[in-house]
């Protein structure tokens, strides 16, 4: 007899891990995306440095526009998908929750300084007379951001991966 209908066995849907009290689901690709964002931000930062070092000041506003866009996208993703998820996930773990909150508070300060710097130099002309000040400010922002990225990747992102 020919089987007209076959019953398919369907594997149970993988349980979606959602942070308690939210609709924010664990994203297995999030850490890779955030690390990729870091690489792109550092690449754009490097292009900004090169433009300043080689006197190509006219390219800076466009580079800053790119950097600002990348940074805002990254910060928003971190805030919504990472910090909120981790804050709810570790609600009952006071020590870990405090670490997450400290990271978020620190990031808010660094983000404000970085975005203020970008806004300033998207509209302020950099030329031979001002490039020295610009480069010092750029190095300060770069050092703070790269140190922060390293700490996120070593401390914060592993907390997310353990979910």
TrEMBL record:
InterPro entries: Hemerythrin-like, Rsd/AlgQ_sf. Pfam families: Hemerythrin (PF01814). Residues 31-159 form the Hemerythrin-like domain. This is Hemerythrin-like domain-containing protein. It comes from Candidatus Muproteobacteria bacterium RBG_16_65_34.
């Amino acid at each position: 007899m020919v089987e007209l209908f076959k019953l398919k066995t369907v594997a149970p849907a993988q349980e979606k891990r959602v942070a308690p009290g939210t609709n924010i689901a664990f994203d297995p690709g999030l850490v890779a995306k955030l690390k990729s964002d870091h690489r792109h931000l550092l690449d754009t930062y490097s292009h900004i440095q090169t433009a300043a070092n080689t006197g190509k000041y006219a390219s800076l506003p466009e580079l800053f526009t790119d950097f600002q866009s990348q940074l805002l996208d990254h910060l928003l993703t971190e805030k919504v998908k990472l910090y909120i998820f981790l804050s709810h996930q570790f609600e009952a773990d006071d020590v870990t929750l405090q670490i997450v909150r400290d990271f978020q508070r620190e990031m808010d300060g660094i983000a404000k300084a970085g975005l203020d710097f970008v806004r300033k130099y998207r509209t302020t002309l950099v030329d031979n007379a001002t490039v020295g000040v610009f480069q010092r400010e750029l190095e300060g922002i770069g050092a703070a951001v790269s140190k922060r990225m390293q700490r996120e990747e070593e401390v914060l992102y592993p907390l997310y991966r353990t979910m």
